[in-house]
UniProtKB/TrEMBL annotation:
Family statement drawn from the similarity comment of this UniProt entry: Belongs to the ABC transporter superfamily.
Entry keyword set: ATP-binding, Nucleotide-binding, Transport
CDD domains documented for this protein: ABC_Org_Solvent_Resistant
Protein name: ABC transporter ATP-binding protein
SMART domains reported in the protein's UniProt record: AAA
One matching Pfam family: ABC_tran
Residue ranges of domain ABC transporter in the record: 15-252
Keyword Ribonucleoprotein: no
PROSITE patterns, alphabetized: ABC_TRANSPORTER_1, ABC_TRANSPORTER_2
Signal peptide: none
């Protein structure tokens, strides 16, 4: 029974994007796009520069208006929920925007506490304790708590931003290019951290990335955006087998072959 439950959970659709279209003026960026994200998976989201990955992420988060289409989050149509239900949905999702986007005038601890201050009322001492736990969770030393973003390395900024995204113990986190700007070792460590959270906390991860290492080593599924829609969706093996020209060039091009040699266990 427990095993059946576990299997059922892995197929639970936590986010469903149905037939969405986004336009800026006369330019259509997304046209009837469909996508599902399942509980406990890391979905890698890739596509050519300018194909609309950030626009889709912003549309899912309600930051960009849609011309049409439906977004079902945790089984609820986000256009049809009450304000109170919408707040509950927002609390169950964390976001790490590109470049970390920490508030420069706040310390790391204060940055982690931003969602707590926005959504829940807690005594300061409890917020400090919770924020320190998040700091530990993402592998930052305690003495980073009172530093400002300008005093952190690129890798520390990403971890602090992840800690902030995890502030309210969300079910799903959206990561926009989380490893961009990190050296390969820092990027691999960040990927490992995210995979660990999936495995230990059952976290669902929607990760926009250009990083082939991330796509090949930690993503359970990959979705490729192109021609305003999802071009191909599936496992690394599906990507490797695809004859779609962009997918083929990306996953079987010269650079990809070099990466595949480094991460053979996921791509054999
Ligand atoms: N607010 C906006 N107003 C008008 N056009 C926009 C707006 N936001 C994005 N676009 C356009 O939508 C298209 C997709 O942009 P988007 O940033 O989503 O691409 P991307 O796939 O995330 O690219 P990259 O990988 O380079 O980050 C681009 O042509 C961009 O110019």
């Amino acid at each position: 029974m427990a095993q059946e439950q576990a299997v059922a959970d892995t197929h639970e659709t936590i986010l469903e994007v149905r037939d969405i279209t986004v336009r800026f003026g006369t330019t259509t960026v997304l046209d009837g796009l469909n996508l599902s994200v399942h509980r406990g998976e890391i979905l890698g989201f890739v596509g050519a520069s300018g194909s609309g990955k950030s626009v889709l992420l912003r549309a899912i988060l309600g930051l960009v208006p849609r011309v049409s289409g439906t977004i079902i989050m945790f089984g609820k149509d986000i256009d049809r929920v009450s304000d109170a239900e919408r707040v509950k949905i927002d609390m169950r999702q964390g976001v790490l925007f590109q470049h970390g986007a920490l508030f420069s005038g706040l310390t790391v601890l204060e940055n982690i506490q931003v969602p707590m201050r926005e959504y829940v009322r807690l005594p300061k001492r409890l917020m400090d304790e919770l924020a320190l736990l998040k700091l530990e969770l993402v592998g930052l030393p305690r003495n980073a708590a009172h530093k400002y973003p300008s005093e952190l390395s690129g890798g520390m900024i990403k971890r602090a931003a992840l800690a902030r995204a995890l502030s309210l113990d969300p079910d799903i986190v959206f990561l926009d290019e989380p490893t961009s700007g990190l050296d390969p070792i820092g990027a691999a460590e960040f990927d490992e951290l995210v995979a660990q959270m999936r495995d230990t906390m059952g976290l669902t991860v929607y990760m926009v990335t250009h990083d082939l290492d991330s796509l090949l080593s930690v993503c359970d599924r990959i979705a490729v955006l192109g021609n305003k829609k999802i071009l191909v969706e599936g496992t690394v093996d599906d990507m490797m087998a695809s004859e779609e020209p962009w997918v083929k060039a990306y996953f079987r091009g010269k650079r990809a072959r070099a990466v595949v040699r480094r991460v053979p266990e996921r791509t054999s």
